[in-house]
Amino acid sequence: MKKIFFILCSILLISFSACKKNTSKDTALYQCPMACEGDKTYEEPGSCPVCNMDLEAVETVTETEMSSDVISETSIFNLTSTWTTQNGEDLQLEELKGDVLVMVMIYTSCKAACPRLVADMRNIEAQLPKDGKDHLKMVFVSIDPKTDSPERLKAFAEENVMDTAPWLFLRSSEDNTREFAAVMAVNYKKISPLDFSHSNIISVFNQDGEMVFQQEGLGVNSDATVEHIKKAIASK
């Protein structure tokens, strides 16, 4: 729980604002049946100022002020950084809205902890019902963007038989990676040209990008993680 509190505080400190309003209203329009004033319409019922006949309703107009949902202050969708997938496609995290996200930070040249994190993610995914995976993404975020090009991520995904949905691999700039790691409460440090020391944390986000659970450690019991994912999918 302390980690979740830390993450929520971290997000609140990020100076992004993505609050959007979704409001619609219906407006009835009225017009003189004799067309004394041509096509002129009125928003309120009454009488024609020329012939004094009662105005008649002619149409109803729906006005949509905004089409986006509100994003909460604790959502990772407030991050405006651009990421590149293993297929070379650019996206922002907000484009993942509507899916439950299970996210972990790794690097493809890792020979110690990362293969175990990959196995943990595979184990979690295997325990989830097939009918819920249409609204699920299992996301690997690289902490070594210099080495992990989209082509390298693609090769890694294929080697691990993770090159189809729900698997997704992302990389970005070093600054964006550091920012994202801070939100995830993941610490990492380069200890040699191709090696990093890093936290082993798998995080679960609901469809609004809000963190609901974290699993820390390697090879740990994932029952609680799976249950939180199922609950997040069911609440869609």
Automatic annotation (TrEMBL):
Domain Thioredoxin: 68-236
Leader sequence segment: 1-20
Listed Gene3D superfamilies: Glutaredoxin
Disulfides per UniProt: C110-C114
Binding locations of Cu cation: C110, C114, H198
PROSITE patterns named in the record: PROKAR_LIPOPROTEIN, THIOREDOXIN_2
SUPFAM superfamilies: Thioredoxin-like (SSF52833)
GO molecular-function term, one example from the UniProt record: metal ion binding
UniProt keyword list: Copper, Disulfide bond, Metal-binding, Signal
Entry similarity comment: Belongs to the SCO1/2 family.
The protein, known as: Protein SCO1/2
Organism for this UniProt entry: Gelidibacter algens
